[in-house]
Design a protein that fits this description.
about 120 residues, rod-shaped, coiled coil, signal
Length: about 120
């Protein structure tokens, strides 16, 4: 019975439970330390995620701005091509007073007569 009393006394002594290893092999203080480390790592990961989310938000805004600028540039190019086509038609039709001529023989395109024939 002395052995049983000593065993029971050892279980009831304060502080001996914290020093005794848990069934998993690690003490409560080690587990708490690991938990604190995990919380710090989770906080760092959250901060990194939030910073990345902010950068992504700025990049999306910049992409939208560039998309709008590209659309304006394409519209301007389309308008310029239209204006160049109108100018070419006007020149071809001699609306501006210019007579278009053939580059190889100097014939006036509209009249079909060569400058040499004049």
């Amino acid at each position: 019975m002395c052995t049983a009393a000593l065993a029971a006394g050892a279980v009831l002594v304060p502080g001996s439970a914290a020093a005794a290893p848990e069934p998993g092999g690690r003490s409560v203080s080690v587990l708490l330390t690991e938990l604190q480390i995990l919380y710090r790592e989770a906080e760092k990961a959250t901060e990194s995620y939030n910073a990345t989310e902010e950068r992504l938000k700025r990049q999306r805004a910049e992409t939208e701005r560039l998309d709008r600028a590209l659309a304006r540039a394409r519209d301007s190019l389309h308008d310029s091509r239209g204006a160049a086509g109108r100018l070419a038609r006007q020149q071809y039709q001699s609306v501006t007073g210019l007579s278009p001529t053939c580059g190889c023989c100097s014939r006036t395109i509209r009249s079909g007569r060569s400058k040499r024939d004049s």
